[in-house]
Amino acid sequence: xxxxxxxxxxxxxxxxxxxxxxxxxxxxxxxxxxxxxxxxxxxxxxxxxxxxxxxxxxxxxxxxxxxxxxxxxxxxxxxxxxxxxxxxxxxxxxxxxxxxxxxxxxxxxxxxxxxxxxxxxxxxxxxxxxxxxxxxxxxxxxxxxxxxxxxxxxxxxxxxxxxxxxxxxxxxxxxxxxxxxxxxxxxxxxxxxxxxxxxxxxxxxxxxxxxxxxxxxxxxxxxxxxxxxxxxxxxxxxxxxxxxxxxxxxxxxxxxxxxxxxxxxx
Length: 266
Fold this sequence. Notes:
The protein has 266 residues and is α/β, with parallel strands linked by helices. 44% of the residues lie in helices and 15% in strands. The protein is globular.
């Protein structure tokens, strides 16, 4: 069935998408709504979040929460808000992330290093920590397969290969891949599947902090590594996230799904 025709693939499912106000997160939220899910958008930027909520509201049931995923109390409060809005949490997409400084590893400041790791890795762990107990209560076998919990972590090809001048980002995404593998094993028999996606670069706001004088050079360097010679489209990542959230994904967990245009073939 085509993506357009599969409007009920996630019918009755309730999702949280972190970093959901723009870029890949917004595309995933849009796709989940199209496939019949309700979606809680979490993002740290209140203004951008409000715009995303307004844009998505006509598409289906959607709520929004301003959340800094580094803050345990904010994460716990947002989980409670999402439960009050929809009654359950079936799907968690850990997409919130930052690129961090584009500098040599030894010139990161400790504060810069911690910020990237705290958002990209510890933030994802805090969200899993808060959400998994609710998924287990809903998903334990012999529950219907459609009620299984799904966690989709948006990592990066940088977590496989390591990008020069992006040590903190690469390390955080490698850690997110490892978290996926560990959590997938821990939950494999408990009705919750955990997988991650490793996109190559998408032309999104994550690069907004790159100085203008370095942007074109960075783009050329990134595209030179991709055999298909282009950025990944956010809707392409969303399509993969939709499959990982749906019933057709039933025997994959702790796995890494590449979407890098041939850059990374392992």
